[in-house]
Amino acid sequence: MPFESLSLVTLAHIYIGLMALAVLLYAVLDGYDLGVGVLIPPRNEAFRDDMIASIGPYWDANETWLVLAVGLLLFAFPHAHSQILQTLYVPATLMLLGLILRGVSFDFRAKVAQSKKRKWDLSFKYGSLITTLAQGYMLGIWVTGLRTDWMAQGFALLAALGVTAAYAFIGSCWLILKTEGELQQKAVYWAKRGLFILGGGIAVVSILNLTLHESVRALWLSAPWGYFLMAIPVTCFALLCLCAVVLKRSPTAKGHAEWLPFVIALLIFGLCFAAFAISYYPYVVPGELTIIEAVADASSLRFLLVGASIVVPCILAYTFMVYRIFSGKAEKLSYY
Asked: pLDDT tens digit string along 259-274?
């Protein structure tokens, strides 16, 4: 179908779909490497080296999806972009500072004297922690409809801790897949601990989510969507139980089921994202601004869609190629 014949409504749905794809892939791909950064132990240099090596070929490219998501929000939904960033200016700035600190630390740790390397490793850890907390806080405020009252602040702080725990869980599952020996065993321990925190977070957020917006509560408590939405947290708990069984049976034994915890984590992330997407559709700012109200001019969107139809497949192809080339266990990271 020629782009010129696409209506504004169709274009709005295409762009919100592309933005949803970018956000989901960012949450999964950059989520695990942020989680690995959060888990970096202060007192074990060998673990730190292996953990950073496990994300070395991927972490910078993973952030491409964040750039794409923000770019799509700016060009396709400028009114929403303005409202969101005006409200979330401080946490967005902190997130960017955290990402910058991660990038600087990643390079400097290989250039400085050995005695100063630990400081940059810890900078990478704290940069990751700042980023995850800021992203969780931003998600919490967005879910409330960009409210700033004390209840919204409390929910946002809870979301900050929840997102950090979720990233740490998927990061530990990534380490089970990519590492060996003592570090892999430690990653199993981290994943076991993360199961309970993540399960509790999903339960609390699912309950509190029903109190934030009347439209969301009505959707969750009515047929047929209510049955589907209620099934999502139940399925997540079933997957967490399956993951607990897998971890208890030592997935580190000669490569047995090393991949399964990470796949389970991917499924849980995807289900949680689907619950949010269905709950808040068609709003780009929950309860305040729909995608039709926020969408840009149709002629501009048609022009940009030409570029998006080229750029997005290229990013997907590049991402697939990188993960295919660097599949298998992580090797010692070389900067030369």
From this structure: 899 999 999 999 999 9
Nearest to 240 by CA among 192, 289, 272, 177: 192
Tokens matching residue 186: 């430690």
The reported pTM is 0.92
Residue 330 lies in a domain: no
Cα–Cα distance measured from residue 266 to residue 80, given in angstroms and rounded to the nearest whole number: 28
At 88-131, the pLDDT tens digits run 999 999 999 999 999 999 888 888 877 788 899 999 999 999 99
Domain hosting residue 299, numbered range: 3-325
Helix H segments across the chain?
8-39, 45-55, 59-62, 64-76, 78-87, 89-108, 117-143, 150-178, 181-212, 214-220, 225-248, 260-280, 291-294, 298-325
Total domains in the chain come to 1
Preceding omega of 286 cis (within 30 degrees of 0): no
Q: Looking only at Cα atoms, what is the longest distance across the chain?
A: 63
